[in-house]
Amino acid sequence: MPVDTTLLRRFVAVAEELDIARAAKNLNVSRTTLMKSVAALEAELGVPLFEPAADNPYLTEAGIALLAESKGLLAHMPPAGGPSQGSGNSSGSGGGKAKASKGRGRAPAVKGQAAPGKRRQSR
Known about the structure:
By secondary structure, this protein is mostly helical. It is built from four helices and two strands, in the order αααββα.
């Protein structure tokens, strides 16, 4: 059964830090997103990976086993967001799909002039 590598990376980050806030900061995601990812992984595997605690999470036996297995699996994979994404943008400037400038109106050079094909309203 294939498991989402993003969920595994997030699980490993929490398991290594044993601090949700610090792991979330290192991954640049919110704590809520991180906890939802861990909960999704637990639901997918059908076993709890962390003991519920007030301050910091503690790994269960299944969590310890998954951590060791995940580290070995993720070591052989390219890093997340790496060059394997196939974006074609080798500069690494965070390219992506260009978006239309919705709601920006006309360019400043032609603002104030009548739109082509429209007649000015007379008073």
